[in-house]
Amino acid sequence: MDDYREYLRSIPKVDEVMKIKKLADLAEQGSRTEAVETVRSLTEKLRHQILRAAADTGTNGQKSGDSRAFCIPTAEELAEQAAALLEKQPGAHLRRVINATGVVLHTNLGRAVLPETAVRAAAEAAGFSSNLEYDLDNGTRGSRHAHVEEILKKITGAEAAMAVNNNAAAVLLCLSAIAAGKEVIVSRGEEVEIGGAFRVPDIMRQSGAILKEIGTTNRTKPEDYRDAVTENTGALLKVHKSNYRIVGFTRETTLQELKEIGQETGLPVLYDMGSGLFTDLGRFGIDEPVVSAALKAGADLVMFSGDKLLGGPQAGFAVGKKELIDRMKKHPLARAVRVDKMTIAAAEAVLRLYLDPEKAMREIPALRQITAGEDSLRARAEAFVKSLESSAGTKGWRFAAEPCEDKPGGGSAPAAVLKGYAVTVCPEEESSGSGNTPEQLEMALRQAALPVICRIAEGKLWLSFRTVRPEEEDRLLESLLEATARQ
Ligand SMILES: *Cc1c(COP(=O)(O)O)cnc(C)c1O
After folding, report:
1. Distance of alpha carbon 351 from its chain centroid, rounded?
2. Which amino acid residue places its CA nearest to atom 6 of ligand 1?
3. Ligand 1 atom with least separation from CA of 306
């Protein structure tokens, strides 16, 4: 037994192992707790092995030779083992990736990328205390809505405004606060479903409002609304056909026409706009409505997303008549769908950029990417092909800059096609026997240290440069070299 005690005593102490430079450095970069836990699990394992052997020996009354002779690692060896384990551990589950899909607001890749000022504002709100609900002038409790309300009013011309978690929440809260128990009239052509299970009839049911469908899929006239109004009607709802268009023999009732009916009947006109635009992007092929224009045309309340064409954080904004916004703010559901401080900070920073529309176009990545011209994308793609061709380690692959078609994404402007440029990658003819395939390369790119998401078409990989940020190009090159080296 004495041997075992000796073995146990000779296991290096955790503190001692933690002092070894390599491990100390890793702990410094990552988490010290995790490093200590890793070392402790190694020493515990040794201890168990020794104790089990001791127990076995005790029962058998004899030692069974060499197999019981433990080789106790030194502190350096343990540090080495722990470091190897720590380095092998997968990093965070939510990871940064490079979006080379050409879909600007890619829902699966997190939609809008925030402008620098918004990133900084969100980080500051996260890392420090703030006046989130504190009035600095009076030293009293303040409102979290205050940070975005004034700017939203200024940009859109609305009487009042508020922010919630996302547009789905804005619509749910609005219907709950304004029309629960009442009928809400909606055109059959506007019973929208957005990817991810936002369906107008479902949201309506959830809010306690009763959906009153009118018209037909392709035609809904003002008379259809008028005929449907009863004393149990609570609101007229217009929903923007965000992700589809109806063409041909059509008739849509406009906001101006709804405003008239609203005035005749005393009913509020609510507008779920989907993607919120503050400036018209028609000249860039983006056929989407503008918030201020919708209010001017007659909507009493407009609701829209923060992270679609607006280019901000995930949020839902409601702007319009103060009386309606107040009802939403006071509704119990408001608390359940309220935005957090990081979102408010980021939203305020993005909205501030819109006070100067040209600055917004320049600094908001979503807008900059959507409006990027084919020529500038082509120049970047061609320069990138040159640097790829001059890099070692890309043998067996052929690179080219080719025109491609991109999309705004985010379920907005479904018909819009943005003419862009991509770097394409395909196996060289003579090496096609060597097993290089675009599918393998695509997979290797997804598994790179900084994963790259792209698409395959016509037997090639397409890396669209519209959604690759110029400052990301070095990292894209690294990931590509890493992936080709793996083939
Ligand atoms: C996108 C969209 C929504 C949902 O907005 P989120 O911000 O994604 O919750 C609701 N209505 C319409 C018309 C939309 O286009």
Report:
1. 18
2. 167
3. 7
Task: Tell the residue number behind the tokens 């092995």, with chain if given.
Answer: 49
Closest residue CA from atom 5 of ligand 1: 167
Nearest-10 crossing angle of helices 200-207, 167-179: 50
DSSP string, 254-298: -HHHHHHHHHHHT--EEEEEEE-BSS--GGGT----BHHHHHHHT
The per-residue pLDDT for 432 is 53
Whole-number Å distance, alpha carbon 102 to ligand 1 midpoint, is 21
Q: Taking the chain (487 residues) in consecutive chunks of 10 residues, what is each chunk's mean pLDDT? A: 80 93 85 88 90 76 55 91 81 91 96 97 98 97 95 98 97 98 97 86 96 95 97 98 91 96 98 94 92 98 97 98 98 97 98 96 96 97 95 88 96 90 90 75 94 96 98 96 86
What is the bridge-based pairing of β-strands 452-453 and 98-99? parallel
Q: Could you tell me if residue 96 is left (phi over 0), alpha (psi between -120 and 50 degrees) or otherwise beta?
A: beta
Structure tokens at 320: 């319009």
Predicted confidence at residue 59, as pLDDT, reads 57
**Residue 477 · residue 384 · CB < 8 Å:** yes
Centre of ligand 1 from the C-alpha of residue 201, in Å: 14
SS3 at position 15: helix
Of ligand 1's listed atoms, the one at least distance from the Cα of 243 is: 15
Rounded distance between C-alpha atoms, residue 118 and residue 481, angstroms: 32
Q: Which atom of ligand 1 is nearest to the CA of 171?
A: 10
pLDDT at 66: 46
Q: How far is the CA of 191 from the centre of ligand 1 (A)?
A: 12
